Amino acid sequence: MNEKIIEYKKLLRREMRARRKSLTEIERQTFSNEIVKKFLAQEIYQSSKIIMAYVSMTEEVQLQKIFVDALNSKKILVVPLIIGKGEMCAVEVPNFDALEMGEFGILTVRADLRKIIEPEKINCVIVPGAAFDLKFNRLGLGGGYYDKFLPRAVNAKKIALAYDFQIVDAVPNEPHDFKVDMIITEKRIVKI
Predict the structure, then answer these.
(1) Quick one: how many helices (H) and strands (E) in the chain?
(2) What is the mean pLDDT of the chain?
(3) What domains sit in the chain, N to C, each tagged with a CATH number?
(4) Has this prediction a pTM greater than 0.90?
(5) Mean pLDDT for the stretch of residues 152-179
(6) Going by DSSP bridges, is the β-strand pair 87-92/116-117 parallel, antiparallel, or unpaired?
(7) Can you tell me the distance from the alpha carbon of 192 to that of 134, in angstroms, rounded to the nearest whole number?
(8) For labelling alongside 47, which of 2, 89, 126, 157 has CA 20 to 30 A away?
(9) Cβ-contact 128, 146 below 8 angstroms
(10) Is the pLDDT of residue 176 over 60?
């Protein structure tokens, strides 16, 4: 692996993390509300039966309204479950009460309520990332979980919900890096 690419990825991740953390609570909520509203209006969301979304960390685009809408619309909502180093699966969220803090500090479905959903059954995956470019390249958060999971979600559209500053001129990418199909920010929607 090229050392320059690795170093640039680390630098870009740090820069984006700092920019996300610098948002005020009002900016984060305003931007998140606009991004989520645009996502919920998309045909891919409306026609999907099984949606995968991550549980937002504080500085990320806040996805709670998607969880509420998906559950109220009787869609099957799934979230990632870390099962090993760089490995995850998708588990169904039957309701909000089923969520608890997982071992990695991320909300997940309680062990007694976990139902694994096969990746190929998922229609739409909301993909987290540090940065994206207009060629739909994605810089992940560094764990490789989604790069290993997404190739198995063969029937799913991969959608990034991000702050507009997370779209950069070029994201360094390698053969194992997985692209997205659409990027939605508070300012624009970019589709293939």
Answers:
(1) 5, 12
(2) 93
(3) 3-191 (3.40.50.10420)
(4) yes
(5) 93
(6) antiparallel
(7) 9
(8) 89
(9) yes
(10) yes
